[in-house]
Design a protein that fits this description.
The structure is a single chain. This protein has 369 residues and is an alpha/beta fold. It has helices at 4-14, 48-56, 81-91, 101-105, 110-117, 146-155, 210-220, 254-264, 294-299, 312-321, 330-334, 336-348; strands spanning 2-3, 27-30, 36-37, 39-43, 61-64, 95-98, 121-142, 168-177, 194-206, 228-253, 271-273, 279-289, 304-308, 324-327, 355-358. The chain has an 8-stranded mixed beta sheet. Helix 9 links the parallel strand 12 (279-289) and strand 13. Helix 6 packs antiparallel against helix 7. The longest helix is centred in the C-terminal third of the chain and has 13 residues, at 336-348.
Length: 369
């Protein structure tokens, strides 16, 4: 078995908590990071039926997209449904972790997944909230170990410049040091000045990955004391924000694209706004409720916007501005998160003795006749 904290760290590598919207409630909401975990269940929502399923399957950890707790609780009793659900979870020692807007926003998260399922190309952020902050890290490595240290650092997230990975620079020089009393030097003897052929390796690192990169670097480095520097940079990294926008491989009609979306989301009905005969190629997406991003779609000249929960006045704006919209529903645009997160965890812990379930109880509660 593994600890709950091990799963949390992997989830937060993908979707750092710092990316979540200010109104959101993400992270470990119920439970103990030190809890032993054998059975994990992934779900879009947590309701009474899902909790009953978790108890029956002896689940230790529920990973949910929608948080079970949004607002501070004044009491936890069985007089209301939320209090009753929280009491059942605590009584059965079931931890609950939520990855919500941070998973929507992060690179490789839910919106990137949706865009890739639509086979969009040249995918960019639809509404930029911030630019990734970058730092430069420099480390000095003895000859013969430069490749293993470099690989450890890039595997931990260093060396990304745009769509290029493993970007580093090295130059050769002479390092000097004197091991003092109490040291156990990799090279040299106590009290004697040593000169060693070394490489200076430098690379860029996203600010939120500095800790992981430094730890991986030190672990791979042969020296007892590793000499390295971290510098702030004025340049910015990748854009971070809401939704995605990209291009189809070839133009099609809006009517045909509607059928493509229905097929990908495995739904028989969607709502739409616009001209079914119009030719489309530039597609914007936002999973869940994305009506507020219509101005960003117009600014980036999208032909179609796929999202959920469009309000009437938002539909009017889109109609007047010539933007085609597919409202596929909140549930349908987000349910893809379940298999995605389950597979993500399986791939990381495939050699561990754990079971990962996808809930059988999530369903769209909004029906169309």
């Amino acid at each position: 078995m593994i600890k709950c904290d091990e799963v949390i760290k992997e989830l937060e590598k993908l979707a750092p908590l710092s990316l979540a919207e200010s109104w959101d409630n993400v992270g470990l909401l119920i439970g103990n990071r030190e809890q032993k975990v054998k059975n994990i269940m992934v779900t879009l929502d947590i309701n009474y039926e899902v909790i009953t399923e978790a108890v029956e399957k002896k689940v230790d950890l529920i990973i949910s997209h929608h948080p079970i707790i949004f607002k501070p609780l004044k009491k936890i009793t069985e007089d209301d449904l939320l209090g009753k659900m929280v009491r059942i979870l605590v009584k059965n020692n079931i931890s609950v972790y939520a990855a919500h807007t941070n998973l929507d926003i992060c690179q490789g998260g839910l919106n990137d997944l949706f865009a890739s399922k639509l086979q969009l190309k040249n995918i960019k952020v639809l509404e930029v909230l911030q630019k990734q902050k970058l730092k430069k890290i420099v480390v000095f490595i003895p000859e013969g170990y430069e490749d293993s240290v470099r690989q450890a650092m890039t595997n931990a997230g260093a060396g990304w410049i745009g769509d290029y990975s493993d970007c580093t620079y090295t130059c050769k020089g002479i390092g000097t040091f004197r091991p003092l009393e109490g040291t156990n030097p990799f090279v040299g003897k106590q009290g004697k000045i040593e000169k060693v052929n070394e490489y200076r390796l430098e690379t860029v690192v996203p600010e939120n990955k500095i800790s992981d990169v430094v730890q991986s670097m030190i672990k791979a480095h042969p020296y007892e004391e590793v000499a390295y520097d971290v510098y702030p940079l004025e340049i910015e990294g990748k854009a971070i924000g809401l939704g995605r926008i990209g291009e189809l491989d070839k133009q099609t009609t809006f009517a045909e694209f509607i059928n493509i979306v229905k097929s990908i989301l495995n739904t028989t009905h969607v709502q739409y706004i616009g001209n079914k005969q119009s030719i489309v190629s530039k597609i914007a997406v936002c999973t869940g409720s994305g009506g507020d991003l219509i101005p960003s779609c117009l600014k980036q000249n999208a032909d179609v916007y796929v999202t959920g929960d469009i309000k009437y006045h938002q539909a009017q704006l889109a109609q007047e501005m010539g933007l085609n919209i597919i409202d596929a529903g909140h549930y349908q645009t987000e349910y893809i998160v379940v298999s995605f997160l389950a597979e993500y965890i399986r791939n990381i812990f495939h050699q561990k003795d754990i079971c990962i379930f996808e809930t059988e109880c999530n369903r769209n509660i909004i029906h169309t006749l």
